[in-house]
Design goal:
Shape: globular
Largest sheet: 5 strands, mixed
Number of helices: 11
Low-confidence stretches: none
Helix content: 25-40%
Strand content: 25-35%
Structural class: alpha+beta
Radius of gyration: 24 Å
Number of strands: 16
Number of domains: 2
CATH superfamily of the largest domain: Conserved hypothetical protein from pyrococcus furiosus pfu- 392566-001, ParB domain
Strand order of the largest sheet: 2-3-11-9-10
CATH topology of the largest domain: Conserved hypothetical protein from pyrococcus furiosus pfu- 392566-001, ParB domain
């Protein structure tokens, strides 16, 4: 018997890479509590970012004195935000937006006005911004846009959005996905059965009513909740960031008037609780994202939004999954 036959052969396979796709995010970590920074880096960052977590926490601790000074020296800066009338030469454009069915249905629960708003002093609950997406938005807007272009960019409720992918996972179980994390379940409604609906009644029987569910995107208009003299940015953060990066100081925004805080202000915005947003003397503002010491660039795992509708169980699951 040969020597080769006496030796066992060990098969060594190359390790399978995990989490190879990433995005670069600007993270306003200075205003986040330490436990949030730790969780964000550990769960969202790629392996290289997780390995430098001790360094990140040391930097966070070192910057807290500056954050405290800002909070002490600027206790009412959010209350001094400029809100001006949008120039009259775009009044017809605003009227068309205000009467658009999608805009009206999206903001039916609030009295809504339009204003030209100082970007820097908008209260920003969102902690991160996707830098690649911002670059695309800035290119689309271009330099020195007119007020009409800004109105369309900021307020038009209908935009060209990413295609949505669909897969029927099982009988009555449908999955939808999109790289746009605004993908969401838009509600279910009863409708009368029409002759066109009968072709979908594959289970047989005599349908008398239909219940349909909608999956898609919300209206894209940039909007902010107005509570007294403060404005809390609710949607459109990336476009606001893109405009500020181009040197634009004022932006046309839909203002959602809040008269009853318990009923008209959401429990949280971008995961930040209502109690903190409303009580903070000096909350995080858009301008803080442009202070190099307060932010860091983090490589985070690329992801897509998935909505799974289970008709048989009457459930909807909405998740971010790796792409």
């Amino acid at each position: 018997m040969s020597d080769l036959a006496d030796k066992s052969v060990t098969m060594v396979s190359a390790p399978v890479p995990v989490g190879t796709h990433f995005n670069e995010q600007r993270y306003l970590y200075a205003f986040a509590p330490q436990f949030e920074v730790q969780k964000y880096i550990r769960t969202q960052g790629i392996a290289d970012e997780v390995s430098r977590l001790p360094e990140i926490i040391d930097a966070w601790r070192a910057i807290q004195l500056q954050v405290q000074l800002v909070q002490t020296n600027e206790p009412s800066v959010a209350d001094s935000i400029k809100v001006e009338r949008v120039p009259s030469d775009v009044s017809s454009q605003l009227a068309a937006i205000a009467t658009d069915d999608l805009f009206r249905s999206s903001f039916a629960s609030h009295q809504t006005d339009f204003g030209l708003v100082e970007i820097d002093k908008l209260i920003a609950a969102q902690r991160t911004v996707n830098l690649e997406y911002v670059e695309r938005l800035a290119r689309d807007l271009g330099t020195n846009p007119s007020i009409a272009q800004l109105v369309d960019f900021c307020l038009s409720p209908r935009k060209t959005l990413e295609p949505i992918q669909h897969l029927e996972l099982a009988d009555g179980v449908h999955a939808f996905s999109s790289p746009n994390t605004d993908l969401r379940y838009l509600g279910g409604f009863r409708k009368d059965v029409s002759s066109d609906d009968l072709k979908y009644a594959v289970a047989g029987g005599l349908p008398a009513a239909a219940v349909i569910g909608f999956v898609g995107y919300g209206a894209s208009s940039i909007n902010a909740f107005q509570v007294g003299s403060r404005l809390f940015l609710n949607n459109g953060f990336h476009r606001v960031f893109a405009m500020r990066s181009l040197g634009i100081k004022m932006a046309p925004i839909a203002l959602l008037q809040v008269k009853n805080l318990q009923l008209e202000f959401p429990p949280a915005i971008a995961g930040v609780p209502r109690e903190y947003l409303l009580s903070a003397t000096r909350p995080a503002l858009v301008k803080d994202f442009f202070k190099p010491d307060f932010t860091m660039t983090v490589k985070t795992k690329a992801r897509v939004k998935v909505v799974v509708v289970n008709l048989s169980q009457g459930t909807v699951g909405q998740h971010d999954v790796p792409s």
